[in-house]
Amino acid sequence: MKLFVHFDEEGRILSVARVHRTGDAPQNPYIHVERQEHVLEMDATEEFQALDAHEIAEQYKVDLKSKTLKKQKQAGPTKREQPRKGAEKKPRRKSD
User: Fold this and answer.
1) For residue range 1-33, what is the model confidence (pLDDT) as tens digits?
2) Taking Cα atoms as reference points, which of 6, 33, 7, 32 lies closest to residue 19?
3) Long-range contacts made by residues 11-19, C-beta under 8 angstroms, separation at least 24?
């Protein structure tokens, strides 16, 4: 099986296509791409065969120098996701 990875000039994966080999060489499904976009053709390893196409796009990035897929670092929680100090709700007092 071949993987065709459609990516932009920064190495971000835009889409992934799997093409099963037949008698002929597999054809690139990304015939028309923009000038700043590229296509990487590679053999699908067992690791990539175990993942869905969207998982590859979410978890990997194209290393532009070596033209290989590199696993992205998992981002930590952003400031918005971190709870603010004193953010827990306090019950209101009933005034008489």
Assistant:
1) 889 999 999 999 999 999 887 777 778 888 888
2) 6
3) 11/61, 11/62, 11/63, 11/64, 12/61, 12/62, 13/56, 13/57, 13/60, 13/61, 13/62, 14/57, 15/53, 15/57, 16/53, 16/54, 16/56, 16/57, 17/53, 18/44, 18/53
Total-model pTM: 0.70
How many Å separate Cα 37 from the centre of its chain? 15
- 8 Å CB contact between 30 and 6: yes
Amino acid making up residue 2: K
Helix/strand number for the chain, H first, E second: 2, 5
The strand pair at 2-7 and 38-43 is best described as: antiparallel
CA-atom Rg of the chain in angstroms: 22
Which residue type, as a one-letter code, is found at position 59?
Answer: Q
